[in-house]
Amino acid sequence: MDSSKLESGGAIDEMTNSTLLAQSLAERWHGFWDGSIGVWLLDRGVPIALYLIGGLLAARFINWGANRIVRRIDAEYRESDQLVRTESAKHRQAVASVISWVSVALLFVVVIVQVTTILAIPIGSLVAPAAVLGAALGFGAQRLVQDLLSGFFIITEKQYGFGDLVSLTVAGIAAPAEGTVEDVTLRVTKLRSSEGEMFTIPNGQIVKTLNLSKDWARAVIDIPVPTSADLNVVNDLLHDVSERAMKDPALSELLLDKPQLMGVESIELDTVNLRMVARTLPGKQFEVGRQIRVLVVRALRRAGIVSPSDSAAPMVEAIVHPATAGGAEEETQGPVEHKK
Prior knowledge:
Blueprint: H1 2-34, H2 36-79, H3 87-118, H4 127-156, E1 165-170, E2 177-184, E3 188-192, E4 198-202, E5 206-211, E6 217-226, H5 231-247, H6 249-252, E7 260-267, E8 271-280, H7 285-302, H8 308-311, H9 326-333
Antiparallel strand pairs: 1-2, 1-5, 2-3, 3-4, 6-8, 7-8
């Protein structure tokens, strides 16, 4: 009986101790939230965290929506029978990219303003430091403001858009940057060159814009022929090439009209340069030029008209080493007179 009473008494003590411990933890928990730190977390910490999380989620949603719009425009182009993108599609893709970028920037500005309001930071006391900081950053931010303004005018004036083939002259760089536009924002333009390189160019540094795929393009083909060739025959051959190009199924889809023979472009010592031009779909001038050159070369070869470098026979001379025997020298150079 004594042992059972002791065991029951020990159990009661343990239960009492656990109850007291739980009550103390609950009191401490409630006391923490009633204290200054708990009140600050409830009144300011939680709203700040919600604003930051909400801002990140909203930014992700904006980027997702912009990417979906771009993919839809690109899918409409790929599913259609169009050979090139329309100017409106290029502009819409560029505008979608710019709107998403500006929306994210404004969203984070709003979040920062709300956080400063929750933290009760006095705006009046920040005026003087902000003026000094603004003056200090003004010199460094000139380039950024210039890039943003240039990007705004590039988009609104529709100088180029997504998928355009452009040549951009950049300040301080002699060679222009050429490639296909892959992204346009208010700050930078990204070009993909023919060799796969990616150019990232600040919009404020662009001095001149050359759009090679705006509405339509022109293929220019220069044809050198020897001065001895009959130009009337050559002209007839080139007119036949123009007719054949319009009948070619692959070329006719890329040409807007029949290639035109412009006539003699320049006269050199051994050759006369003729020029043909052809209006093509935007960005297809290089492909059309290559195919027309193949047709021109075939026509001229078939007519027996070759360039002076092809018609001239190569001259080969035998050079005899000084140690060569006299008999071998006579066989290669002919009879040799020996002075006595």
